Amino acid sequence: MIDGDPLHSATPALLQRAGHLAVLRILAAARQEDLDRLASEADALAVRGYTLDPRDPGARIAHGRAAAEIGRRLSVAAAELQAANGALREAILDDAWTPADDPDAFIA
């Protein structure tokens, strides 16, 4: 550590690894927010379902289709969150990681 700032002593590879982990954390957090938002939409849709007129088959069909669609979107969002968390976990546990391991990394 130089002058109390740990970044002065960090190697470029370490800084790149830290940046890589930060991006993965941000991605996982964004995926969690997407899933939470969709879950709120699904809850609101379920509540609207309680107010449907039981004599209106068109409304019930539309509600069923909307529920199926949000169910599909929830499944996709959950899978994306699981993938993002898995990538983060794998990156954290990968002690042998080097900047060359990231094919999308910018190499000067």
What does the model show?
The relative contact order is 0.14. The two termini are 25 Å apart. Helix 1 packs antiparallel against helix 2. The chain has helices at 12-50, 57-93. The protein has 2 helices and no strands. By secondary structure, it is mainly α. Helices cover 70% and strands 0% of the residues. The model has no long low-confidence stretch (mean pLDDT 84).
The gist of it:
With 108 residues, the chain is mostly helical. It is built from 2 helices and no strands.
How large, in whole angstroms, is the Cα Rg? 22 Å
Q: Which regions contain 5 or more consecutive residues with pLDDT less than 50?
A: none
Distance, first to last CA: 25 Å
**Largest β-sheet summary:** none
SSE run: HH
Give the helix/strand class.
mainly alpha
Helix content: over 70%
Number of helices: 2
Q: What is the multimeric organization of the chains shown?
A: single chain
The total count of strands amounts to 0
Proportion of β residues?
A: under 5%
> Mean pLDDT across all residues, rounded?
84
Tell me, what's the shape?
rod-shaped
Element layout with pairings:
Elements: H1 12-50, H2 57-93
Helix pairs in contact: 1-2
Features:
single chain, 108 residues, mainly alpha, 2 helices, 0% strand, rod-shaped
